Amino acid sequence: MSEHNIQNTEEHAHDEHAGLSKSKIWQVFFILLGITVVEFIIALVILPKGMMGHTTGNVLYILLTILKAYYIVAYFMHLKFEKTGLQLALGLAFIFIIYFIVLMLIEGGYLHLHMSLHP
Amino acid sequence: MNSLSQLDQVKTTPWSGGRSPWSVEYGKIMMWFFLLSDAFTFSSLLVYYGAQRFSKFTWPDPDLVFQSIPGIVDTGAPLVFVGIMTFILIMSSVTMVLAVEAGHRMAKKEVVGWMVATIIGGFMFLGCQALEWSHLHHEGFWWGSIPAADRLQDFFVGPVSNVSALQFANLFFTITGFHGFHVFTGVLLNIIILIMAMNGTFEKRGHYLMVEKVGLYWHFVDLVWVFVFTFFYLV
């Protein structure tokens, strides 16, 4: 058993990181920086000038945030290069988080409606 | 040997035992499981924040609350300081990946260099957060306390609500505090790893997997900040 572990470790330390070179790291960094800059442009230029509604802005913020999260998890945390089984095991759990978020936002929206109808 | 039945033959498929089916080292997979549970903890806080914010008629406007750069200007610079903080954290995430990459090449000096850069980034972020907290504290926000009614008007675009301001204050300090605690823990772990790398522990071990494991944690802290940043400062 321990021999197997050692073998795995060595295998791992040599093969699996071929996917992420220095240039790729900097590329991901500039993508993350670029997305953040876009968020700032929305917050400081587009929304104050009224070129876009606040709801649209919020939807855009959340989409851009999820995109950033994807790049961090896939490249920096290296999940893109792991086995499909591990990707699924970790990825599917996040569906529950999204489910909870949607649930509680609906609940919050209901409370809001309820309180404006019956103050 | 002919009597050996099919069942007795040694299986070599990934899930038949004797090796990691995902070919991930044990400590790394345990770090992933911990991070998953931590993601649930953070999301429970953020979900409560979202539900509160959705149910209220009015909420403190982030552009009005966060518009100071401590030590430079007190008003009129919305989002600039938090932009600097975000940049510092993303940057320290990059130096961490570079440390992992250097560890993969067994380049001890480079690992040490990038780890030092990561630790400096972590301390800079914590320092910025301390400045931000003390600024908000001077304005009158804290757990369970909000600015006086005449000052509170400055933080709302529409009608003023004491309940909303109180919820905002409690949730802001709890969530950024919990995140800051994670950053602090991460910096401590990074320092331990740095000392081990300098002592040549990983060189003797033959691999720099510990750097990768702590790196996973560090990127997770960055990941959480991406969400905190969006939901507190942008939305």
Automatic annotation (TrEMBL), chain A:
InterPro entries according to UniProt: Cyt_c_oxidase_su4_prok
Record keywords, A-Z: Cell membrane, Membrane, Transmembrane, Transmembrane helix
UniProt entry tagged with the keyword Transmembrane: yes
Superkingdom classification of source: Bacteria
Primary site of residence: membrane
Subcellular location: Cell membrane
Membrane topology of the entry: Multi-pass membrane protein
Transmembrane segments: 25-47, 59-79, 85-106
Pfam families per UniProt: COX4_pro
Protein name per its UniProtKB record: Caa(3)-type oxidase
Originating species: Pedobacter antarcticus 4BY
UniProtKB/TrEMBL annotation, chain B:
Transmembrane domains' residue ranges: 29-51, 79-100, 112-133, 171-195, 216-234
SUPFAM superfamilies noted in UniProt: Cytochrome c oxidase subunit III-like
Single GO cellular component term: plasma membrane
Location relative to the cell: Cell membrane
Pfam families referenced in this protein's UniProt entry, alphabetically: COX3
Heme-copper oxidase subunit III family profile domain span: 1-235
Gene Ontology MF annotations: cytochrome-c oxidase activity
One Gene Ontology biological process: aerobic electron transport chain
Keyword tags: Cell membrane, Membrane, Transmembrane, Transmembrane helix
Domain of life of the organism encoding this protein: Bacteria
Protein's membrane topology: Multi-pass membrane protein
Family, similarity comment: Belongs to the cytochrome c oxidase subunit 3 family.
Name listed for the protein in its UniProt record: Cytochrome oxidase subunit III
